[in-house]
Amino acid sequence: MIGTEMTPASHVEPDPKKEPRSLAILRSRTAGIVAIALLLAGIVSFAVTSRDSSSMPLGDLPGWRQTGAEDFSTPAAKGLVGRIYGRDMRGYSDLRDSSNKGIYSPDMVLSVEDGKLDYFLHTEDAVPRVASVIPFGYSGQKFGRYSVRFRADSMPGYKIAFMLWPTSDSWGDGEVDWPEGGLDGSAYAASAINGSLENGGMRFDPPSRIYAPTDMTDWHIATTEWTPGSVKFFWDGQLVSQTTDRTGVPFRKLRWTLQAETMDGTDPSLPAPEVSGHLQIDWAVQYAYEPVG
Q1: For the chain, how long is the longest CA-to-CA vector?
Q2: 186 pLDDT exceeds 50?
Q3: Given pLDDT bands bounded at 50, 70 and 90, which one contains residue 264?
Q4: What is the predicted pLDDT for the residue at 4?
Q5: Phi, psi dihedral angles at 33 (to 5 degrees)
Q6: Cis peptide before 179 (omega within 30 of 0)
Q7: I want to staple 235 with a disulfide (CB 3.0 to 4.6 A). Which of 157, 212, 282, 283 is the partner?
Q8: Nearest CA-CA partner of 150 in 220, 237, 50
Q9: Chain segment 230-243, per-residue pLDDT in tens
Q10: Which residue from 145, 165, 85 is spatially nearest to 118, judged by alpha carbons?
């Protein structure tokens, strides 16, 4: 995160109307004022940092060049997200989701209000309506850093899979998932093993799921760092998991996709028709990998 700039303490001039004092007393008074000012500045800096900890980071970071930033500052009603933010933000349309139970229906699901991209996940015409957006386009990049601030209502039968997906659309070229998981639980992370596509499935690293320490009902920041040697997964700045084998690190271009869909491998009656709720994204930022030195 980019630190908050601290405003220097104001210089304090002696009051010329007061009677003169010795230089030693003046120095002592000035030192005391400066010390208090610095203390207050530190308190103010802490308050500002705390207040701004949810703000979208802007600009490059050491080793990373920012290539995309979106904070959804322009409102958009349902059906207008593609017109205002571009068709990639509207994402997939009229396709079955991964479980084959839901249909990507961006014009029924997506809107922007109060600076948040809102996914209204619900059943309409007996079909669960979901959405999957590509915030920074289909061209993708090789290696990168991706951060998103989001929250979701608890919705049994729905899930998210915020993923890096091959620009080739060939699953064998890799897949990185973080955060992924049911919207009635906690998220986990995984990266596909290169060349492991077999019988319609991939093997993933780490081999056992490691979950985020909290569920997704409050605001959280999920970050993926993909470099030539590893993929690391962070939750609110804390490392949750990472790859354990270099074969779990993709080496071809991937694009970032923020996908909400129905759960796979669960009770086929889920999600129940009466289940509905909101997945909200406050901001999303993307960086290209540029090692220092």
Answers
A1: 91
A2: yes
A3: confident
A4: 30
A5: -65, -45
A6: yes
A7: 212
A8: 220
A9: 999 999 999 999 99
A10: 85
Non-local CB neighbours of 154 within 8 Å, separated by 6+ positions: 183, 184, 215, 217, 277
Which residue spans of the chain are classified as CATH 2.60.120.200? 64-289
Cα gap 79→207, rounded to integer Å:
40
- pLDDT at position 68 is 98
| Pairwise CA distance, residues 254 & 257, whole Å | 9
- Measured at the alpha carbon of residue 249, what is the angle toward residues 206 and 164, in degrees to the nearest 5? 90
| Closest alpha carbon to 7 in 58, 55, 45 | 45
Q: Which two tokens stand for residue 79?
A: 């059906």
The per-residue pLDDT for range 248-262, each reduced to its tens digit, is: 999 999 999 999 999
- In the predicted structure, residue 46 carries a pLDDT above the cut 80: no
Structure token pair of residue 132:
């999957």
Cα–Cα distance, 246 to 33 (Å, whole number): 56
Reply yes or no on domain 64-289 having CATH 2.60.120.200. Answer: yes
- Enter the tokens of residue 139: 């061209």
